[in-house]
């Protein structure tokens, strides 16, 4: 089973773009034995996404934007 390196959703067919978050694969899909069941709300739109996701598959926002902005203030 392979997962998107950005939204961590399962990618069934070989493609250059994730069918869930629409991100192009710059990094290779991640090999995984199981799909994570842990979910959290997106900090921007509030919809449930996988807890290890880097980008929200619904609003397409990078979840570490808040951390990047906070680092720039220091």
Quick summary:
The protein contains 1 helix and 4 strands.
Please count the beta strands (DSSP E, at least 2 residues each). Answer: 4
The rounded distance between the terminal residues' Cα atoms is: 41 Å
Number of helices: 1
Question: What can be said about the biggest beta sheet?
Answer: 2 strands, antiparallel
* Count of the domains: 1
Low-confidence stretches: none
Tell me what portion of residues adopts beta-strand conformation. Answer: 5-15%
Strand order of the largest sheet: 1-2
Q: Could you tell me the radius of gyration in angstroms? A: 13 Å
Q: Name the structural class.
A: alpha+beta
Order of helices and strands: EEEEH
Taking all residues together, what is the mean pLDDT?
80
What percent of residues adopt helix (DSSP H or I)?
A: 10-25%
Q: What characteristic shape results from the CA principal axes?
A: globular
Care to describe what's here?
This protein is an alpha+beta fold. The protein has one domain (1-74). Helices cover 12% and strands 14% of the residues. The protein has 1 helix and 4 strands, in the order ββββα. The protein has one helix at residues 65-73, and strands at residues 2-3, 30-31, 39-41, 48-50. The chain starts with a strand and ends with a helix. The mean pLDDT is 80.
């Amino acid at each position: 089973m392979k997962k998107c390196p950005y939204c961590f959703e399962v990618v069934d067919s070989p493609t250059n773009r994730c069918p869930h978050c629409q991100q192009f694969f710059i990094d290779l899909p991640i090999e995984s034995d199981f799909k994570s069941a842990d979910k959290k709300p997106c900090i921007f739109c509030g919809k449930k996404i996988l807890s290890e996701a880097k980008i929200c598959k619904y609003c397409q926002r990078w979840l570490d934007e808040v951390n990047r902005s906070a680092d720039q203030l220091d």
